[in-house]
């Protein structure tokens, strides 16, 4: 795969500026609801752009993760019990922000018997009770592939459910506790449990993956009924995390988007700054 090797400074296409003034209003709404966003916890480089449009991805079930992935900056401390008031607070924040497409995710909660599935469903229901025309997208962990948990998610009322593969099988050592084949099965089972929903996944480039490995991953997703995909550049949160192997130029993202669409995907968002929930409303519109 033709790439630009990492240097001490990011290439021009990765020098996105964040305007702090654009964050204030959304930060105030989030703080009022005692909520968290993955935008803040994962230090997303798109935070200024999204917050300025009053868009955010809600992080429910706390901000502590039970797994030790080496690419993600979400806290690895012992998680707290789910907050029963959180679903209502999310719905209130959605209303305050005027969102028409809501993305909700969570850290992995292996400490909970259902992985947090019921809490996800309660959050969807709180939003739908307020306005059932709002589109809800869930981005879930694998929930250890528990059938009951996945059934709860599949019938939660969400229109779109995402679960990220993150990277190719050879590099799965960065996803502590995750299994490539299990993640594929989760996507497939969600489609089987509720054929009315759309499934979505996401991967990162720049970890040392090879072109043929990415192509094989695209085939795997299609074989598991997943036809929506986000592809973005991996950026290490700090020196303590998995190192960036390469900065992949924009034309390579275009290449994989075009290749995937030709293979049968319905929509692929692919660019250095693409993240799982970036411009999330585009997928169903397309």
Describe it for me?
With 286 residues, this protein is an alpha/beta fold. It has a single domain (20-285), classed as Alpha-Beta Barrel (TIM Barrel). It is 35% helix and 14% strand. The chain has helices at residues 24-32, 38-41, 47-52, 86-97, 117-130, 147-154, 180-193, 211-223, 250-263, 281-285, and strands at 4-5, 36-37, 57-59, 101-105, 135-139, 160-162, 198-205, 228-233, 246-247, 267-270. It has an eight-stranded mixed beta sheet with strand order 2-3-4-5-6-7-8-10. The chain has a two-stranded antiparallel sheet with strand order 1-9. α7 (180-193) links the parallel β6 and β7. The longest helix is centred in the middle third of the chain and has 14 residues, at 117-130.
Q: Portion of residues in helices? A: 25-40%
Assign the CATH superfamily: Aldolase class I
Number of domains: 1
- Helix and strand succession? EHEHHEHEHEHEHEHEEHEH
Unreliable segments of 5+ consecutive residues: none
The amount of beta strand, in percent, is 5-15%
Shape, per Cα inertia axes: globular
Number of helices: 10
Strand order of the largest sheet: 2-3-4-5-6-7-8-10
Strand elements, count: 10
Distance between the termini: 28 Å
Cα-atom Rg, whole angstroms? 18 Å
Structural class: alpha/beta
Mean pLDDT: 87
How is the secondary structure organized here?
Elements: E1 4-5, H1 24-32, E2 36-37, H2 38-41, H3 47-52, E3 57-59, H4 86-97, E4 101-105, H5 117-130, E5 135-139, H6 147-154, E6 160-162, H7 180-193, E7 198-205, H8 211-223, E8 228-233, E9 246-247, H9 250-263, E10 267-270, H10 281-285
Parallel strand pairs: 3-4, 4-5, 5-6, 6-7, 7-8, 8-10
Antiparallel strand pairs: 1-9, 2-3
